[in-house]
Design a protein that fits this description.
The complex is a heterodimer of chains A (290) and B (269). With 290 residues, chain A is of the alpha/beta class. In chain A, 39% of the residues lie in helices and 18% in strands. In chain B, helix 7 links the parallel strand 5 and strand 6. The chains are: A alpha/beta (290), B alpha/beta (269).
């Protein structure tokens, strides 16, 4: 039955593409990259350009490596095109935490990101959507005042424009360096998402590795529809904390995406390469093209 | 008022087993109480209590964390660390408070949500997230009192009040100072330093705008009568303020949105 539905979905989406003449753009870097990088799961040596073309998924074992926020947007959206907003919104240093400012400055240079989340508007199979993508390279995607504000603002923007909202979560949780104000972002984001959903908006949460702590216990768990990438670690407490608390090893696969699906907290585990199609289908089932 | 304590000394006071907790305030400040148990889904978590109480003649809904008074109770409540059933019970009771137009008063003293295997299986993150969304749209006023340890999301899930009060020697933080030191400095021994830099005391949090009033504590920690009188006066004052709000839900949303806004810059309007 699933096979049949998948074929129908493919046909339906292909029709939409023909009309619009658009596809995703995820241009491989020119030329072969002679460098190899080992898969952290199976150990297979994979050429760098193969990693890139495969959306950072191991061709051997299907392991999902982290993917940068901008790469995620390019692989997801029609023509790889999007309009970013609030790109210059950044946080400050409420605790005057030693070394925090320097760390932020260094990360901005190293990653090209201003903060741990990028917010944008784009289209998937012709369906416009507001998209937020967290990036685990930026302080483990942690949520401080700026990330909380950007998440709240995407919800407000989606509400104002009457567009669906898609958030790719990748976060270790609250940002320690901003102390209690990070904790308060849980309340802030949960309230903003709730208001958007009560206004009739569609919110799709895509949980990627890792989605834990204060992010999992706020907007990540509030999707009308919740998708997760294979193998993603999803939970409130980290595995090490749990092992210390209960004094025993955790079972294989505990807190992984498939485990969450089995326990009723995720609608579908979707491999990265199929996310665009799945999201296209969900958007088409929820509204009209504009 | 005890003015001269360090953050770490206050942390020790907040955690002291002799310190009066939510159950003491329940017994001391309310003339009646009917406990409501169970989340109607899975079970009843004793680490959170809740029910209908009478406060100065007015029926209110009271919720709080519970650590237990003996070892057996301590173990059953994981020393005051709630499981998902606790948060779901709190949601049920809060929703009912709204239905019957009762104001909500909460007392928080928890190291955090219980980090256990079953708690994760049954959706600890989901439970906390849904408590937050529910509190964001509750149309009845809510006053939260951080009276001991306010640990992370597990505490916030009972503390999204229109008015947030905090006892002088209570602490409230994103993570325990021990956890903070071990994550950021890979050295769990630097607790004193973490306590200072994290801004966990009531006065620091008042300055950051997270707390609306610091409730003074009697010099003698065993003076329960004075303590109750001070807490009672603060709750009465802030409950009155909360009851005058035209739109408590909107007030709560804006209050928690504003906390981080002083600490961001740039971005489109």
């Amino acid at each position: 039955m699933n096979q049949q539905f998948e074929e129908r979905r493919a046909k339906f989406l292909a029709m939409g593409l023909k009309r619009k003449g658009k596809g995703p753009v995820f241009a491989p870097k020119p030329g072969l990259d002679p460098q190899f990088e080992k898969c952290p799961q199976c150990g297979m040596a994979v050429r760098k350009d193969q990693w890139h073309q495969g959306y950072n998924v191991c061709p051997g074992c299907g392991f999902h490596r982290p993917i940068g926020a901008y790469d995620r947007l390019r692989m997801l959206l029609d023509d790889g095109a999007f309009r970013e907003f609030n790109s210059a919104l950044t946080g400050r240093d409420p605790l005057s935490f030693p070394g925090y400012r320097e760390k932020l400055a260094a990360l901005r240079t190293a990653t090209g990101l201003q903060e741990a989340v990028v917010t944008a508007v784009g289209k998937i199979y012709g369906f416009p959507a507001v998209v937020a993508v967290m990036d685990s390279r930026f302080l483990m995607g942690s949520m401080g005042a700026a990330v909380g504000e950007k998440i709240a603002r995407v919800a407000q923007l989606a509400q104002k424009k009457k567009l669906p909202l898609i958030i790719f979560c990748a976060s270790g949780g609250a940002r320690m360096q901003e102390g209690i104000l990070s904790l308060m972002q849980m309340a802030h984001t949960a309230a903003a998402i709730e208001e958007f959903q009560c206004s009739g908006g569609l919110y799709i949460a895509c949980l990627t590795n890792p989605t834990t702590g204060g992010v999992s216990a706020s907007f990540a768990m509030l999707g009308d529809i919740t998708l997760a990438e294979p193998g993603a670690l999803i939970g409130f407490a980290g595995p090490r904390v749990i092992e210390q608390t209960i004094g025993q090893k955790l079972p294989e696969g505990f807190q992984r995406a498939e485990f969450l699906q089995d326990h009723g907290f995720v609608d579908a585990v979707v491999p990265r390469g199929e996310l665009r199609d799945t999201l296209g289908q969900l958007l088409s089932l929820h509204g009209r093209k504009r | 008022m005890i003015q001269h304590l360090t953050a770490q000394q206050r942390l020790a006071l907040a955690r002291s087993p002799q310190r009066p907790g939510p159950m003491d305030y329940l017994q001391g400040l309310f003339t009646e109480f009917f406990e409501q148990r169970g989340d109607r889904l899975q079970g009843d978590d004793p680490a959170i209590f809740g029910g209908i109480a009478r406060y100065h003649g007015r029926p209110v809904t009271v919720l709080g964390t519970r650590k237990g008074k003996n070892l057996e109770e301590n173990l059953r409540t994981h020393f005051g660390m709630p499981e998902p059933e606790g948060y779901r019970k709190a949601q049920r009771i809060m929703a009912q408070a709204e239905k019957f137009r009762r104001p909500i008063i909460t007392f928080v003293d928890t190291p955090g949500a219980y980090p256990g295997l079953e708690a994760e299986e049954r959706g600890q993150a989901d439970a906390i997230a849904r408590s937050l969304t529910l509190m964001s749209r509750l149309t009845v006023p809510m006053v939260a009192v951080i009276c001991g340890e306010g640990g992370s999301g597990g505490a916030l899930a009972l503390a999204m009040g229109n008015e947030v009060l905090m006892l002088e020697n209570a602490v409230y933080s994103v993570l325990s100072p021990e956890g903070f030191a071990s994550i950021l400095w890979k050295d769990a021994g630097r607790v004193a330093e973490a306590c200072e830099v994290m801004k966990i005391t009531a006065r620091d949090l008042r300055k950051l705008g997270v707390v609306d009033e610091v409730i003074p504590e009697p010099e003698n920690p065993e003076n329960l009568t004075t303590r109750l009188r001070l807490v009672d006066a603060a709750i009465t004052k802030h409950l009155d303020a909360a009851l005058r709000l035209k739109d408590p839900a909107r007030h709560r949303q804006e209050k928690f949105a504003a906390m981080g806004r002083a600490w961001i810059q740039g971005g489109n309007p």
